[in-house]
């Protein structure tokens, strides 16, 4: 919020005494404040009287203090601000402080805070804190910042939907809010508190420095904290779900970058006839394998319990599955099938991972400004809980003995430690460890003691209410104060692994060392220590590569495992020993031990005397960077190199490392020679180049510069090698004649980043870090560019005309790499945010359709397609992981493949849309109209407030504090006349209890017919509700709104209490929301220009996946089993969700008539079962889909009947396989789905109901679960209910249907139906009022009966 750094200033010298006050002192001060003052402000005399009343010892000291705090010199201080600021700096738990502030601002004394009261509390407390620290008005956050935070608190914490927040709700929200906890964390610096890490009377006299070998681990933790502190400061003031892109400086930088790219791309010229076109992307990606492991972190690998383990034949093979983190993915490896599956809910680098004692659930924590903990099922990969609290990162996790509690340690400045009831998704207690980096954590078996260890610090925690109280451990004369690396419990004794190679046993009750063992070599740090159920003791791993299993009393069981001497082999039998033997993680189950190594390798050891073995299961790069990768032109192999000074070759089919070569320097660039790929060029960070054969034997080496090689590439004919350097030059070599240098390209102003050759090998295109593009001939001289994609093969230059559009969609992130697949004309690009996206090639303009795939964390250094385009490989620069993606083609109709595709007609004009349906134009442009209506530009705002200059304060007016007091009366909403139908459809539903649920204004309305009472979901939505969906159980409802930051609210129909509030992804509005058949997932379609699609695990408030869909408006969407259908004007797509990514497949139209296909405009879609769906169009056509393929028209049995007008409403029942359709002309049809046939059962005309309707156009339909009634929402905003038993069924399909007449119905609600409603007047003597509006209708209402008693249509809009 505002200048977040200003909140961390030290207290003024005169105010330092307040840091010693407790909350009890503040309560005394407040009592004195109420006695002495009548309002909120205090003059000097009142201020002195209040302080001396509460603290007599301050007599004579308050005069100077008042002068110091009165920074504006008006002789007054705001008492509530002063008390709020004191509360922030006083001693006490967060809960005690929050309760005091809560009571202070509960002006209505109703034990809740409204948005206004919360906003006042936050603003006054922060302003009071600034006063105590010498801050100025410039340091004060804006009112808008506080309003945004208060609105978020209400949206997330108001569980009962009351429009106010109780104390417990407020504390739970604050505990989970990154911004709030970040500010609270910073206040520890304000109060000057220092964590004491040495116990009183500790007899330890020796202290070891941190060994150089473990400094990287400590520095890594510190650098991560500093990095994310900086990000946190930059993002402070934005809503928690918004990215840092909102920062104005960031936007300015982004605009400059785009301008630079556009200028460079434009300099190449634009050939006629090659402009980017809106078209479907013909392929998608599916994550197949990750070559990598997060080896910068420790204790993050463990066995899982799986069904394969129970089979007797697998007993000798050991556990089938284990899990580990790779980049932002949790990987579950099945060693029996040699397959990987991925947990994909994390959004950044996974820092910690621990398996539940039951062996099924996995807890994992990530880095980031919002560092959530995820608990997930290791077999199904489903999320069980998301635990939000920490900022910067969660680097330590631990389960208690029975798995009921989870412990976490964060990477914020004070290293917050939290104990979770993970199943309830709440914190049990929390505390802080201090500023020292924490390296290990564990919980005692009876959960009474928690031990956290770090650099020269061991802390024991105990639960005290909602707080974790810490006690520093006494090292005593038995040990040394040093870096404590790891910890595990046996019973209630804590065993701590030390940098000296020793293990200390602590008595947790007395918090002191009682025994010491030299478990590993002298000063070989014990990096991993874990409970071992097989031995009843521990298993330890050290930096020297030795792993030991210990029984009770720390007696070694069997012989030690020495990985430095291990003759390890891969599963294919290739002997590849570990490069770095440091053991970072170890886990034992039965006779099997799995080890995570510092070099990125995962080994499994069978620890038996007879048939023991060691084998490598996973290989990975380690170090700081994975700089490059290259694919072979013929074989399915890929080469990689990075800062770990290794060159590696991977087999795509075998999914394993097949060769490795140690290098004298870090590798920075790679390129295979074309055609047969006999040579591999490697560039090094010292400016050297080496040419290897396929056996990684050096064939040639040369060096012509001292700075790093940044890129290299062979010409398509194989005769030339170009090497780009950080010295801004490109060096050309003759690849045929011993790599003699033939030229130098000089002219770039920054390091060269990418290069391309034309297909005839005569011209080079190159980019540099300043986003310049240059062209060179084969001798190194400047030349004119050939423009057009036909001149370039596998383009890798990200700054060029062909791919200029990629930068428009980069959202401020630099495009770090691109690559073209010429077989599909698809370009893959990677950016600095770790996203991989597919576009059609060329992509010359922004806003094009694209598919986004995530998994990396940090920049992607290289993206390369395999020969043939069957795979895409992406190298993560910071996560050091190589992702192998399957590049799949979408299935096409046979006529499409033969070139005889039937194209849908072009987009319709507004006049054509209005002719199809008067409401269609409003619906398609609802977002623009509503946003425009609610937006006020600065100039317009000034015009609206022009009256300010024409009013004046009355003479003799005196302001009184009582004028700010709240009123003694409240308004309670009792009835709403109206139902939104003009620009939204299918938003009228029955609940399981038979109540009627619909949307109106910013409300969800629940109408009980039996009591004639309306209830409301109100106070959460901040703008018009545009979409509604009922949960399959009929007890929950989801509603979505319009607005700049639209909310999706899931709420209980009976109580109208919130169950979840989702926001942060969509902009402008949410036009469609739908639950899946189980109710676990919720899809939403946005009203932005690209009609973005999102899928939520709503119970976890977690965005599962998202993608842009189409520039054309999506009119219908639903789940069909595990797929998602989206449809609109001229398109129908089926989406598949896998590994956190959404991929689409265009519908296959086999058997659909040319007329129906060319005129297709999807209006509704619903699932009939887990595979079959039903769609409708503006022409009245109904189509059945089996999976993605159209079913024959004979599957719809309807005789001569068909809808002649746009079918705008559709509903399918849960479990009974019935469907209802309604069209613009007022025809409603009921259908039965059975035996792969959709059969017409009833049909009637809404015009025949016994009620005068304003409009008979059907906008929503719904059938009661018991089949007795049918709800119909009309374009006239009327809700009517008809009895189904009064409508005769069809005995046969007759040529002339005997339409039922005089259908009995009940009008449940009605209202104005178009534009805005302005006119309102109440009768002076009767319970009547009249309304009028843009629908050219005047309506007279009776208050008692809550009904319209008369309506009159006039000739124009009424205001």
Automatic annotation (TrEMBL):
EF-hand domain boundaries: 57-92, 93-128, 145-180
Keywords: Calcium, Repeat, WD repeat
WD repeats (start-end): 632-660, 702-734, 745-777, 1323-1351
GO molecular function per UniProt: calcium ion binding; microtubule binding
InterPro entries named among the record's database cross-references: Beta-prop_EML-like_2nd, Beta-prop_EML_1st, EF-hand-dom_pair, EF_Hand_1_Ca_BS, EF_hand_dom, HELP, WD40/YVTN_repeat-like_dom_sf, WD40_repeat_dom_sf
PROSITE patterns, per the entry: EF_HAND_1, EF_HAND_2, WD_REPEATS_2
UniProt keyword Repressor, yes or no: no
Record-linked PANTHER family: HELP DOMAIN-CONTAINING PROTEIN, WD-40 REPEAT PROTEIN
Protein's UniProt name: EF-hand domain-containing protein
């Amino acid at each position: 919020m505002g200048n977040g750094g200003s909140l961390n200033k030290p207290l003024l010298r005169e105010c330092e005494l307040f840091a010693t006050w407790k909350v009890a002192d503040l309560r005394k001060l407040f009592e004195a404040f109420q006695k002495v003052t009548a309002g909120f402000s205090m003059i000097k005399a009142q201020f002195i009287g209040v302080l001396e009343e509460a603290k007599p010892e301050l007599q004579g000291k308050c005069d100077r203090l008042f002068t110091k705090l009165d920074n504006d010199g008006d002789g007054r201080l705001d008492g509530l601000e002063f008390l709020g600021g004191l509360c922030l700096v006083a001693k006490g738990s967060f809960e005690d402080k929050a309760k005091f502030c809560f009571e202070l601002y509960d002006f209505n004394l109703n034990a809740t805070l409204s948005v206004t009261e919360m906003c006042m509390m936050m603003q006054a407390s922060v302003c009071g804190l600034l006063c105590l620290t010498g801050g100025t008005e410039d340091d004060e956050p804006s009112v808008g910042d506080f309003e945004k935070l208060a609105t978020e608190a209400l949206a997330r914490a108001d569980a009962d939907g009351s429009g106010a927040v109780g104390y417990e709700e407020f504390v739970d929200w604050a505990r989970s809010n990154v911004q709030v906890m970040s500010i609270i964390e910073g206040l520890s610096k304000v109060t000057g508190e220092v964590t004491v890490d040495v116990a009183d009377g500790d007899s330890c006299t020796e202290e070891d420095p941190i060994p150089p070998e473990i400094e990287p681990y400590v520095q890594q933790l510190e650098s991560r904290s500093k990095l994310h502190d900086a990000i946190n400061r930059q993002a402070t003031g934005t809503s928690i779900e918004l990215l840092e892109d909102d920062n104005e400086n960031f936007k300015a930088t982004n605009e400059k970058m785009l301008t630079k790219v556009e200028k460079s791309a434009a300099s190449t010229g634009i050939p006629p006839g090659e402009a980017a076109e809106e078209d479907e992307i013909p392929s998608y990606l599916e994550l197949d394998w990750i070559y990598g492991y997060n080896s910068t972190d420790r204790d993050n690998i463990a066995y899982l319990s799986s069904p394969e383990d129970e089979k007797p034949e697998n007993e000798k093979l050991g556990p089938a599955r284990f899990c580990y983190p790779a980049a932002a993915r949790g990987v579950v490896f099945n060693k029996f099938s040699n397959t990987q599956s991925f947990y994909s809910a994390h959004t950044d680098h996974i820092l910690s991972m621990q398996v539940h004692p039951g062996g099924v659930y996995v807890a994992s924590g990530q880095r980031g400004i919002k560092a959530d903990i995820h608990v997930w099922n290791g077999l199904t990969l489903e999320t069980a809980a998301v635990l939000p609290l920490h900022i910067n990162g969660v680097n330590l996790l631990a389960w208690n003995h029975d798995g009921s509690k989870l412990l976490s340690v964060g990477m914020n400045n004070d290293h917050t430690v939290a104990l979770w009831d993970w199943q309830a998704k709440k914190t049990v207690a929390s505390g802080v460890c201090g500023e020292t980096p924490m390296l290990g954590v564990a919980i005692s078996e009876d959960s009474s003691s928690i031990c956290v260890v770090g650099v020269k610090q061991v802390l024991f925690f105990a639960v005290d209410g909602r707080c974790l109280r810490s006690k520093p451990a006494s090292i005593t004369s038995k040990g040394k104060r040093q870096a404590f690396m790891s910890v595990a419990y046996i019973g209630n004794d804590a065993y701590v692994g030390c940098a000296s190679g020793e293990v200390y046993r602590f008595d947790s009750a007395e918090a002191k060392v009682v025994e010491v063992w030299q478990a590993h070599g002298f000063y070989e740090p014990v990096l991993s220590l874990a409970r071992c159920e097989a031995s009843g003791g521990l298993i330890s791993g050290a930096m020297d590569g030795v792993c030991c299993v210990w029984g009770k009393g720390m007696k070694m069981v069997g012989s030690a495992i020495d990985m430095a001497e291990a003759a390890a082999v891969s599963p294919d039998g290739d002997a590849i020993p570990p490069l770095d033997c440091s053991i970072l993680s170890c886990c034992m189950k039965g006779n099997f031990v799995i080890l995570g190594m510092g070099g990125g390798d995962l080994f499994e050891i069978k620890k038996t005397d007879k048939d023991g073995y060691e084998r490598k299961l996973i290989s990975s790069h380690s170090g700081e960077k994975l700089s490059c990768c290259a694919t072979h032109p013929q074989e399915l192999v890929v080469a990689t190199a990075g800062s770990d000074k290794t060159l590696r070759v991977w087999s795509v089919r075998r999914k394993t490392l097949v060769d490795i070569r140690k290098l004298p320097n870090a590798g920075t660039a790679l390129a295979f020679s074309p055609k047969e790929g006999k040579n591999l060029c490697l560039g090094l960070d010292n400016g050297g180049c080496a040419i290897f054969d396929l056996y990684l034997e050096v064939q040639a080496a040369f060096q012509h510069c001292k700075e790093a090689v940044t890129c290299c590439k062979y010409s398509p004919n194989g005769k030339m090698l170009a090497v780009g350097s950080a010295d801004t030059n490109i060096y050309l070599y003759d690849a045929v004649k011993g790599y003699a240098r033939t030229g130098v390209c000089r002219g770039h102003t920054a390091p060269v980043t990418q290069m391309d050759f034309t297909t005839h090998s005569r011209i080079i295109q190159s980019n540099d870090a300043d986003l310049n593009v240059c062209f060179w001939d084969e001798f190194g001289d400047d030349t004119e560019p050939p423009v057009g994609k036909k001149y370039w093969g596998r383009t890798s230059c990200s700054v060029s005309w062909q791919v200029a559009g990629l930068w428009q969609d980069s959202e401020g992130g630099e495009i770090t790499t691109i690559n073209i697949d010429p077989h599909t004309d698809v370009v893959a690009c990677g950016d600095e945010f770790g996203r991989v996206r597919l576009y059609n090639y060329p992509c010359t303009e922004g806003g094009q359709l694209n598919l986004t795939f995530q998994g990396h964390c940090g920049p992607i250094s290289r993206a390369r397609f395999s020969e043939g385009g069957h795979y895409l490989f992406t190298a993560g620069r910071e996560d050091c992981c190589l992702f192998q993606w399957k590049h799949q083609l979408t299935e096409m109709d046979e006529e499409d493949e033969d070139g005889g595709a039937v194209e849908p007609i072009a987009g319709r004009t507004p006049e054509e849309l209005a002719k199809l349906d008067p409401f269609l134009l409003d619906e398609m442009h609802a977002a623009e109209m509503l946003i425009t209506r609610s937006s006020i530009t600065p100039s317009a705002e000034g015009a609206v407030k022009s009256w300010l200059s024409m009013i004046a304060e009355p003479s003799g007016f005196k302001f009184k504090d009582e004028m700010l007091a709240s009123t003694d009366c409240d308004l309670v909403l009792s009835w709403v006349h109206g139902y939104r139908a003009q620009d939204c459809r299918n938003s009228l539903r029955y609940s399981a209890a038979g109540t009627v649920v619909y949307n109106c204004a910013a409300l969800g309305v629940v109408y009980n017919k039996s009591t004639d009472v309306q209830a409301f979901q109100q106070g959460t939505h901040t703008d018009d509700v545009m979409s509604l969906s009922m949960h399959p159980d009929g007890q929950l409802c989801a509603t979505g709104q319009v607005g700049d930051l639209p909310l999706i609210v899931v709420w209980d129909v009976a109580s109208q209490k919130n169950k979840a509030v989702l926001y942060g992804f969509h902009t402008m509005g949410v036009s469609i929301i739908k639950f899946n058949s189980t109710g676990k997932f919720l899809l939403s379609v946005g009203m932005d220009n690209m009609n973005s699609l999102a899928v939520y695990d709503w119970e976890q408030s977690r965005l599962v996946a998202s993608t842009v869909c189409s520039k054309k408006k999506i009119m219908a969407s639903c789940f069909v089993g595990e797929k998602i259908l989206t449809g609109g004007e001229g398109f129908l797509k089926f989406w598949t969700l896998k590994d956190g990514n959404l991929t689409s497949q265009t519908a296959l139209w086999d058997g659909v008539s040319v007329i129906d296909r060319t005129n297709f405009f999807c209006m509704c879609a619903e699932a009939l079962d887990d595979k079959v769906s039903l769609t409708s169009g503006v022409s009245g056509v109904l189509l059945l889909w089996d999976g993605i393929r159209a079913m024959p028209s004979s599957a719809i049995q309807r005789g001569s009947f068909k809808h002649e007008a746009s079918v705008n409403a559709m509903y399918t029942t849960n479990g009974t396989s019935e469907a209802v359709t309604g069209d613009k002309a007022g025809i409603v049809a009921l259908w039965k789905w059975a035996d792969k046939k959709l059969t017409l059962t009833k049909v009637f005309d809404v015009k025949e109901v016994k009620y005068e309707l304003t409009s008979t156009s059907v906008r929503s339909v719904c059938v009661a679960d018991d089949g007795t009634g049918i709800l119909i929402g009309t374009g006239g905003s009327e809700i009517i209910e008809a009895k189904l038993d009064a409508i005769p069924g069809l005995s046969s399909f007759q040529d002339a249907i005997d339409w039922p007449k005089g259908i009995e119905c009940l009008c449940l609600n009605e209202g104005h139906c178009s534009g805005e409603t302005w006119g309102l007047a109440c009768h002076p003597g009767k319970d009547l009022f009249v309304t009028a509006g843009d629908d050219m209708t005047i309506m007279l209402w009776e208050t008692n009966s809550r009904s319209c008693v008369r309506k009159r249509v006039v000739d124009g809009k009424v205001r």
